[in-house]
Amino acid sequence: MTQRIHDFLLRRREEGRDTEPCLVVDLDVVRENYQTFAKTLPDTRVFYAVKANPAPEVLRLLASLGSCFDTATVQEAEMALAAGATPDRVSFGNTIKKERDIARAYALGIRLFAVDCKEEVEKIARAAPGAKVFARILYDCAGAEWPLSRKFGCAPEMAVEVLDHAQRLGLEAYGVSFHVGSQQRNVKAWDRALASAAAIFRDCAERGISLKMVNMGGGFPTKYLKDVPTVRSYGMAIFRALRKHFGNRIPETIIEPGRGMVGNAGIIETEVVLISKKSQKEGELRWVYLDIGKFGGLAETMDESIRYQIRSPRDGADVEPVVLAGPTCDSADVMYEKSPYPLPVSLEIGDKLLIDGTGAYTSTYSSVAFNGLPPLKTYHI
Ligand SMILES: *Cc1c(COP(=O)(O)O)cnc(C)c1O
User: PTM N6-(pyridoxal phosphate)lysine: at which residues (predicted)?
Assistant: First the structure.
């Protein structure tokens, strides 16, 4: 935890404002993360994935540092523009868009769109004539802790057809994109995807279409319980893969970090509401209920995928595994049960816990008023 977050939480507690859970994000850490990405891949443009944390403070900071923005909706695009980005620094990266939203984005000046099928290309040709499009390809996401399924992207051979179709309809077939899966702990994951991208470049060139850009997506991890490689090692592996597959004709490149940009900048403070057992049987686990759960911002504990680091004021004491659950009346609101979580035996009701690495994919996942609970309170300092 940074000194600034520590001091902020202390003051909040002293002023008696610590009645609800909260997320505190240290903007200095976001700034450092941006600079690390920019320095590590100096020839690559950074498009921050807005969905990871769309707080205006984060967007304004990144806009001022020169970041571009990957947006999933017109609303996110408007937020990036309001934060100071110019339309040429905003992409519409969702492959699933309403035609009227494409037209709205085009009216805002946005000219860079993702596609993964001919049907979407046709919408863009009608609503955003002359725009640049890049084709998203499928990737199996092995090695990622939050894999992305088959929802986005098409087979590489089909991407060639999709780009060809775009060019025929008067769009600019601009490039290829992929996402290696979020929280990708294997630095080599980009290699295979870049091999596919290079093959698409060659196939398109044979058809007289000269692609210019590879969008290498997000996937850069945040440290949760397990250690993760440094951004520098990702940068070196990516650069080597670019050289290997594109030789000395490396195209324009983009990365879209979300989690890796903001994850480690945030900490959630939560309170222990109840500690109890389900029976008096020998070996029965304790249940620890917090005032935040899956519906309060910890949605990524779904299937116990993301395993956060949780700290307590009693760290250093003996620990034993507990089942960790949220406060709501929904039985799915259990974070860790299949793999119980070690917490101090001396933990007590009313203790405050700190959940590390929660700057990404938390605040916007918290429900509006499920069980009457307010959305997660957030502070960007
Ligand atoms: C969500 C998303 C990202 C960000 O992914 P991270 O794993 O958080 O870095 C990047 N690009 C696209 C298209 C996305 O949908």
Answer: 51
